[in-house]
Write a structure and sequence with these properties.
- The protein has one domain: P-loop containing nucleotide triphosphate hydrolases (Rossmann fold).
- The chain has 8 helices and 10 strands.
- Strand 6, helix 8 and strand 7 form a beta-alpha-beta unit.
- Helix 1 crosses helix 2.
- The longest helix has 19 residues.
- It holds the Pfam family ParA.
- One of its GO terms (molecular function) is non-membrane spanning protein tyrosine kinase activity.
- Keywords: ATP-binding, Nucleotide-binding.
- InterPro entries: Bact_polysacc_biosynth/exp (IPR050445), P-loop_NTPase (IPR027417), Wzc-like_C (IPR005702), YlxH/NBP35 (IPR033756).
């Protein structure tokens, strides 16, 4: 569900935005990967809402990329066409500009995944992906790229993308994802820049997390 301006959750996303911009500003980071350990933790909705809250700043422009070329969903969430996108660019079949779709939200644009693929890791490992991100990074400090990827444990795709971006955010559904699964997911992201863990669906005290929260989202800085 998208952010409701009247919801207390939006304040937590604003807090996340503040943390993220502070962290990225210190290290000149404007490309981010959002992933999770397993499916069903809310990474795609988190990616969308993060893109929306970043785009609320009129100085920013945001490109939300559906990097889950196995089971794409961003186009469905926004109700836009999804038959052409990142896949077509990586295959060299379309120019990037022709694939980017504007949204009803000012400053927010979407690059859909395109038709689902069975082996997208081969496409992600090409120079086209790195060229794409370098081009986006060159657009300045107020241009942000958020890539929603498949879960880290089930495929190699996010591990490939993680080596290209400035920072990684891991989404965890509080009270659902076992601690050993989270640890395994983090271990697969070694040698990349993990900016933090986004705790999703927090209510009261979770048996997995020794902190009390009174809101639906939380952000935990990660240090190896």
């Amino acid at each position: 569900m998208f952010l409701d301006p009247r919801s207390p959750v939006i304040e937590q996303y604003r807090s996340l935005r503040t943390h993220l911009l502070a962290e990225s500003g210190n290290k000149s980071i404007n490309t981010f990967l959002v992933t999770s350990s397993i499916r069903g933790e809310g990474k795609s909705i988190t990616s969308c809402n993060l893109g929306i809250i970043l785009a609320h700043n009129r100085q920013n422009s945001v490109l939300l990329v559906d990097g889950d070329m196995r089971i794409p969903s961003i186009h469905k969430i926004f109700g836009i066409r999804g038959n052409r996108g990142l896949v077509d660019y990586l295959k060299g079949e379309s120019e990037l500009d022709s694939l980017i779709v504007p949204t009803k939200i000012d400053n927010l644009f979407i690059l859909p995944a395109g038709e689902p693929q069975t082996s997208p890791s081969e496409l992600l490992a090409t120079s086209k992906m790195t060229d794409f991100l370098r081009m986006e990074e060159s657009k300045g400090k107020n241009h942000y790229v958020i890539i929603d990827s498949p879960p880290i444990i089930s495929t190699t795709d996010p591990r490939i993308i993680a080596t290209y971006v400035g920072g990684v955010l891991l989404v965890v559904q509080a009270g659902r994802t076992p601690r050993d699964v989270i640890s395994h997911g983090l271990s697969l992201l070694k040698n990349v820049n993990i900016l933090g863990i986004i705790l999703n669906n927090i209510s009261g005290i979770s048996p997995y997390y020794p902190y009390r929260y009174s809101y639906a989202y939380g952000y935990v800085e990660y240090s190896k």
